[in-house]
Amino acid sequence: MADPGAPARVVSLVPSLTEAVAVTAPGLLVGATDWCTHPADLDVVRVRGTKNPDVSAIVGLAPDLVIANEEENREPDLAALRAAGLEVMVTEVRSLEQAFTELERVLVRGCGLARPRWLDAAEAAWRDVPAPTEPRRAVVPVWRRPWMVLGRDTFAGDLLARLGVANVCAGHADRYPRIPVDALNACGADLAVLPDEPYRFTADDGPEAFPGLPCALVSGRHLTWYGPSLAEAPAVLSAALRRANRQT
Q1: Is 0.90 surpassed by the pTM of this model?
Q2: pLDDT per residue over 84-117, tens digit each?
Q3: Handedness of CA 106, 109, 110, 113 (dihedral sign)
Q4: Could you give the residue range(s) of every CATH 3.40.50.1980 domain in the chain?
Q5: Which fold has domain 133-245?
Q6: Is the confidence at residue 1, as pLDDT, over 50?
């Protein structure tokens, strides 16, 4: 049962958190970004993107709470929302454990909801992941033109590590370094992990860039989103990695 003093109107500026709130409490959300694609039938006011939200439109929705993320959203936009009198809750998610902590903070403390069962299922799914038997060293591009990869201290990198995939760029000073593709091919990886978001790598434009490596085409939503998809992420990502293993 929701806290009777909890917010009645919420705007989410983070796709992961949009899905988490919408699945847990249908009707609570009144606004979300254009990138908030789940649930597929989400019917709320769209407030542009995560990096360029329509501040005046959000203020016009008169939400009791705006939920954001320190990586997804820009501080000047969040400051403008606070200056307009809105309460803004900002999350930080750089590991699986931090994701679980922040999801409970947003849903229970922020939105006044009961802890959802899907969060328990997600924790159980990751707790039961078997120890990896075939450790791999991977490069993980997240963009091209220019090429960008996962570097240090990332949520996606933590998920992959739990599945036996070590990010060869994890020691880089930047969290999302720009590295030319020739250098990526020479960095000592034995696998390329290619998510379908934020850049949509496909079987056509991904593997051709890494001709010497097996490539795992993975669901970006299961690799980078923290929400209900976490419960199925171990199985989905493991299946993609097994397919890549068969390429060797």
Answers
A1: yes
A2: 999 999 999 999 999 999 999 999 999 999 999 9
A3: positive
A4: 10-115, 133-245
A5: Rossmann fold (3.40.50)
A6: no
